Structure formats: C-alpha cells, structure tokens
Amino acid sequence: MLLVEIEKPANQTLAAWFSELRTWLDLNRCSSSTFVPAGRRIERLIYCISFERAAETHQFSTAFERYSATIRLANRIEREQLRMLAGTSAAD
Asked: Which has the closest alpha carbon to 32: 15, 44, 49?
C-alpha cells in the first residue's frame, strides 16, 4: 500500500482544501482508500492518503506537489490501521 503525505495549506480552510482534493479525485476517477490526519510538520497539518494503485498515487502526488506531497510505503502497523479504518481485513 502506498501513502501520500500532504500538508494542508495554512491559508485555506479544511473544508475548502478537502473539496479541492475530492474534486480532483472525482475528475480523475481516482479512489483513495483512506484519508487520515498524520500529525504536524512545524505549524502545518499533515494528512495521509492511501492508494492501492501506484499510478493513482503518482498522479495525485504530482497534481498536489505544491502541498509538499511525498510518496512512501506504509509500514505493517500503518497498513493494519488503515485497513481497519477502511473496514477491510488486516490480514496480509
């Protein structure tokens, strides 16, 4: 499972930012598995978005690189947590 970590911009409301991301996902027919808070970098909120397909992960990351989007592999604990959030089995 691939994750994109992305910073919420300080000058946008959470609702407006989510709407921007959701609109892009809908227009590009991409589906994220989960979208969860992942902490902070200095004063910026970080969110983690998981994708099952690498192509969608890279498209999303490229489209939102202005929000410091970075791609990484989920570790075992994250995979289990994300699967539980998505309502699927945590078995590998």
From this structure: 49
- CATH number of the domain residue 37 falls in: 3.30.70
Determine, yes or no, domain membership for 14: yes
Range of the domain at 13: 2-86
Of the candidates 44, 51, 39, 56, the residue with the CA atom closest to the CA atom of residue 10:
44
Q: Which helix (H) or strand (E) holds 2?
A: strand 2-7
Residue predicted with more confidence, 27 or 82: 27
Between CA 16 and CA 65, with CA 9 as vertex, the angle to 5 degrees is: 105
d(CA 7, CA 42): 11
pTM, whole model, 2 decimals?
0.78
pLDDT tens-digit series, residues 45-89? 999 998 888 999 999 999 999 999 999 988 888 878 777 776 654
DSSP state of 53: S
